[in-house]
Design a protein that fits this description.
115 residues; mainly beta; Nuclear Transport Factor 2, Chain: A; four-stranded antiparallel sheet; 1 helix
Length: 115
C-alpha cells in the first residue's frame, strides 16, 4: 500500500501588491487609459484640424491615396457597410469602397496614436 503525503506551503501574500508578479521581484507595468476625443461638430473639426484636403462628395482617383488598414489600432470603429478608411495627407476619411466617394472626415475620431 502506498501512502501519499501532500504538503501545502502557504506563502505570505501581500494584499497591497499592485500586480501578480510583484512578489517575485519582476517589474510591473500598467496599461494606459485610452481617452477618445469628444465627437464634435463639423465647424469645430475644421477649426481644430484646418481646412480639409478633399471635400465631402469628391471622388478619389485610384492610386493617389492610401487605404487605412487596421482601423481599430488607431481608435476608429471597424469599417463596415461598404465604406473604408483612407489616409489623405494627415487626415482620415470614410470613403465608399466601390465608388471611392468621400463620405465623411473621421480624423477627430482617431485615437492619440494617429500620426
Amino acid at each position: 500500500m502506498f501512502r501519499v503525503l501532500i504538503v501545502f506551503a502557504f506563502l505570505p501574500v501581500s494584499v497591497s501588491a499592485q500586480c501578480l508578479t510583484a512578489n517575485t521581484g519582476a517589474g510591473c507595468a500598467q496599461a494606459r487609459e485610452v481617452v477618445r476625443p469628444p465627437i464634435t461638430s463639423a465647424a469645430t473639426v475644421e477649426r481644430d484640424l484646418g481646412p480639409p484636403p478633399v471635400e465631402i462628395g469628391d471622388i478619389l482617383e485610384k492610386g493617389r491615396y492610401s487605404m487605412l488598414m487596421n482601423a481599430p489600432w488607431y481608435g476608429l470603429p471597424p469599417a463596415k457597410d461598404g465604406w473604408v478608411y483612407f489616409r489623405i495627407e494627415d487626415d482620415v476619411y470614410r470613403v465608399d469602397f466601390r465608388t471611392r466617394e468621400v463620405l465623411e472626415r473621421a480624423t477627430a475620431e482617431a485615437g492619440r496614436n494617429w500620426p
